[in-house]
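Team,

Forwarding the record for the chain on the shared tracking sheet. I've put the sequence and predicted structure together so nobody has to dig through attachments.
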Amino acid sequence: MPFVLPDPAARRRARLAAGVLVLAALLAALMAAEAQDAARRALVNSWVLQTEELGAFARGALASRDELLLVQRLGALGKRDEIAYVVIQDAQGAARFVGNLADAGRRFESETARRASAATATLLQPIPALNALEIDVPLGALVLRVGFSFRPLAPVARWLWGAVALSAAALAAAGFVIMKKG
């Protein structure tokens, strides 16, 4: 036997409650999307600061001819999870200093590398194939290129959307309870 609310006022209240719950679920999803976007923007801002600080360090190391310290610093950065690659290249795209020894002596000829070489200020370039963002800082005749991966953000996104799904389920359960009490 189907459940039927006895009077029209109870049906209106139940419909209103269901509508409010749907709006609450949509609001929770919107808030989750905004939180994810804010986290991504904050992460990118911190990456820009880190890359510009590394650029200042590299300029100083190159000016004082302390290349060993620069190589050590780039090598340490190349081992971090969120760093896809780090390289200092010349205007022709040849790697002068690298974070990964496999890139030593490599010539970068991609459009991304050409734009990096032509940069006159800090440049941000998305790299969709790597789910990464390259941040380029000009160093005079050289350019610092750091590829940051968005992989560290994935667990946060999974947690956030899991919380939204759990909230939606709780709202749906609350809706059934409200409708049944009518």
